[in-house]
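[RESIDUES AND BACKBONE]
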Amino acid sequence: MSPTVTVRFTGELRSLAGLGSLQLSLEEGATLKDAVVAVGELVSPAFADQVSKPLLEGKPAVPLLLLNRTLRSGTELEQPVGEGDIVAFVLPMEGG
């Protein structure tokens, strides 16, 4: 069975992606990296260039990537995703 994950975009990333959320069906054994690649292919080219590509290349990216509310980056992109997982692209909060 192919897992379906929910992808959410917050704040200005909604405008960049062109939508607030989407349901993504992935192949069995898919990783968080596979989800990021799929999102980059499905949403706007601007989102792919400014968010997906830097994340996949291991470059520091302003948007943060969360899997089930846990920050993920670098080698953690190889973590498997499963049915019902939530992948979120969020901007860090400003504060002080």
Q: What stands out?
A: The chain has a mean pLDDT of 89. The chain is about 30% helix and 25% strand.
